[in-house]
Amino acid sequence: MKKFILALATLSIISAPVFAATTEGAKGLLPLGSAAPDFKLSDVTSGTEFSLKDFAGKKALMVVFICRHCPYVQHVKKALAQLGKDYEGKDVALLAISANDPADRPDDAPDKLKEMAQEEGFTFPFLFDENQSTARAYTAVATPDVFIFDSEQKLVYRGQFDDTRPNSGKVSDGKDVRAVFEALLAGQPVSADQKPAIGCSIKWKK
């Protein structure tokens, strides 16, 4: 009986999400309807500098805060790469930002992020927020943390990438963000049923 209880306890630890941070109940978050905060950040792969104006006029703009080390990002990274490929050539812009302090998480240093982008075949900019000012302006909490803006660059969605989680037995498909993209492309309102982001916490500089 003791061995059975120990096995159950071990299984619960293995299957439980780790390093969980969430926007649920958080205060001071960027509210829906807000203008997208501007930024000037460099792509870890090409070195090209991007700012908000580079994505002006798109029917949908998705900004997602991710990193490399986080199990939640590892879980969605292939679906994120596929999302970029599926909407390439459409009136949608997608970019990823990592703001984690490399001193805290060496796997989130720019050279490691470049490796990740190349390994996964990202077709969108992957930017590094060295001073973390962009993450603070967006009120990013977790990785992944998704923000989607409309053609006027007003926030219409903030929350989870999809409803799958690490060790859930479900494959990530980006269902939630795809639904927002399709609504915006069709000129339809975005659903108010938005689930909070959950993932690893942003690793802020000390």
Descriptive notes:
- It is a single chain.
- The protein is an alpha+beta fold.
- It has a single domain, classed as Glutaredoxin (3-Layer(aba) Sandwich).
- Helix content is 28%, strand content 20%.
- It contains five helices and ten strands.
- It has helices at 2-15, 71-86, 110-120, 133-138, 175-185, and strands at 20-22, 40-43, 49-51, 60-65, 92-98, 126-128, 142-143, 145-149, 155-159, 198-201.
- It has a seven-stranded mixed beta sheet with strand order 3-2-6-5-4-8-9, with helices on one face. Strands 1-10-7 form a three-stranded antiparallel beta sheet, covered by helices on one side.
- Strand 2 (40-43) and strand 3 (49-51) form a beta hairpin.
- The longest helix is centred in the middle third of the chain and has 16 residues, at 71-86.
- It starts with a helix and ends in a 5-residue tail after the last strand.
- 38% of the residues are buried.
- Residues 1-17 have low confidence and may be disordered.
Please give the structural blueprint:
Elements (H helix, E strand, L loop, with lengths): L1 H14 L4 E3 L17 E4 L5 E3 L8 E6 L5 H16 L5 E7 L11 H11 L5 E3 L4 H6 L3 E2 L1 E5 L5 E5 L15 H11 L12 E4 L5
Parallel strand pairs: 4-5, 5-6
Antiparallel strand pairs: 1-10, 2-3, 2-6, 4-8, 7-10, 8-9
Compose a concise summary of this entry.
The protein has 206 residues and is of the alpha+beta class.
What proportion of the residues form beta strands (DSSP E)?
15-25%
What is the molecular shape? globular
**Main sheet strand line-up:** 3-2-6-5-4-8-9
- CATH structural class: Alpha Beta
The major beta sheet can be summarized as:
7 strands, mixed
Number of strands: 10
* CATH superfamily (homologous) name: Glutaredoxin
Structural class: alpha+beta
Q: How many separate domains?
A: 1
Number of helices: 5
Q: How far is the first residue's CA from the last residue's CA?
A: 46 Å
Overall pLDDT = 92
Secondary-structure element order, N to C: HEEEEHEHEHEEEHE
Provide the helix percentage. 25-40%
Question: What is the architecture at the second tier of CATH?
Answer: 3-Layer(aba) Sandwich
* CA-based gyration radius: 17 Å
User: CATH topology, anyone?
Assistant: Glutaredoxin
Unreliable residue runs: 1-17
